[in-house]
Design brief:
Radius of gyration: 19 Å
Oligomer: single chain
Largest sheet: 2 strands, antiparallel
Number of helices: 8
CATH architecture of the largest domain: Orthogonal Bundle
Number of domains: 2
Strand order of the largest sheet: 1-2
CATH class of the largest domain: Mainly Alpha
CATH superfamily of the largest domain: RNA polymerase sigma factor, region 2, helix turn helix motif
Number of strands: 2
Strand content: under 5%
Shape: flat
Helix content: 55-70%
CATH topology of the largest domain: Rna Polymerase Sigma Factor, Chain: A
């Protein structure tokens, strides 16, 4: 969970009054965390980016509805979770891009895509990719109701009470879904990580 901004109440008031810089400060404080929540729920970077944009747009346009009963971050997570679940319900479209396809520039020209070397050796890259694929596959195989609770509790470190409030569930329901989600994850991951 991200650190709470000391002047968050002041920033929210300024943002409500139309101060764009105040809202930008709030966005910059929480955007990585909201993106991670969205990515863990949707499983796709493009979808997570869409969810992030939609969540902040909705937060900005509905800032007057934030009552301050919970942390601003908790309110943002609730919006992002709803957007991510809507994205899952609408179904996924394949929006892959060919690396050979040029990028169109603003002036109507096109230029070749540049691919940057991030520095990992092929072995390191493969190991990370393989592990990430295993973890992502296991998370994606969970039903959305379990995946969402596991993400909020185990990845975002929200409390059981905060998770219950975000999802509109009772605390026992969150605990049950978390237990079932963890057991399903363990079952799916056991075949990869059994000690022989």
């Amino acid at each position: 969970m991200p650190a709470h901004l000391e002047n968050e109440v002041t920033l929210i008031a300024a943002a409500r009054a139309g101060n764009g810089e105040a809202f930008t400060t709030l966005v910059n404080q929480y955007d990585r965390n909201i993106y991670r929540v969205a990515l863990n729920i949707t499983g796709k970077q493009e979808d997570a980016e869409d969810v992030l944009q939609e969540a902040f747009l909705k937060a900005y346009t509905n800032l007057d509805s934030f009552r301050g009963n919970s942390r601003f971050y908790t309110w943002l997570v609730r919006i992002a979770v709803n957007e991510a679940l809507m994205k899952l319900r609408k179904g996924r479209r394949d929006r892959s891009v060919s690396l050979d396809e040029p990028i169109a520039t603003d002036d109507g020209e096109s230029m070749p895509r540049e691919i940057e070397d991030w520095g990992d050796s092929p072995e390191q890259s493969y190991a990370k990719t393989e592990l990430q694929a295993i973890l992502n596959g296991a998370m994606e195989s969970l039903e959305p109701q379990f995946r969402t609770v596991v993400v909020l509790r185990d990845v975002e470190n929200l409390s059981t009470e905060e998770t219950a409030e975000l999802l509109g569930l009772s605390v026992p329901a969150v605990k049950t879904r978390l237990l079932r989600g963890r057991l399903k994850l363990r079952e799916r991951l056991n075949k990869y990580f059994k000690r022989g």
